[in-house]
Specification:
Elements: E1 13-15, E2 18-20, H1 23-37, H2 45-56, H3 75-83, H4 97-101, H5 105-121
Antiparallel strand pairs: 1-2
Amino acid sequence: MLVKKSATEIHHLHVDGDEVTELADISNKIGQTFSNNSSAENYNSKFQSFRSQAESQQLKFKSNNSESYNDLFSMQELTDAISTSHDMTVGPDDIHYQMLKHLPSDALNTLLESLNNIWVSGKFQTVGEPLQ
């Protein structure tokens, strides 16, 4: 008779001679290892010197916000995003992707206008609230 292993079986972790068995402890040990490995303390002195010099230079970035990534969303982008979305469990808004995929054009235009207003203003207006 074959016995199938449980998919939820916990594998223990051995760290510095200690056996770690609790999920939270395993997670914390792995996180600490990643943190230690990516720490600036592990950089060699040549790189640390370069990094210090590079970070002390002021960035020379000027913008009039006309970069393409600041453009308003287009109807094509909206419909592409909706059509390629996967049907998933609804979120707190109770809106199913199937509802979005079957919106009439007037509703799509309203949705696009709302998204672009949020993009430009950085604020989410409630229904009936005037735009600022």
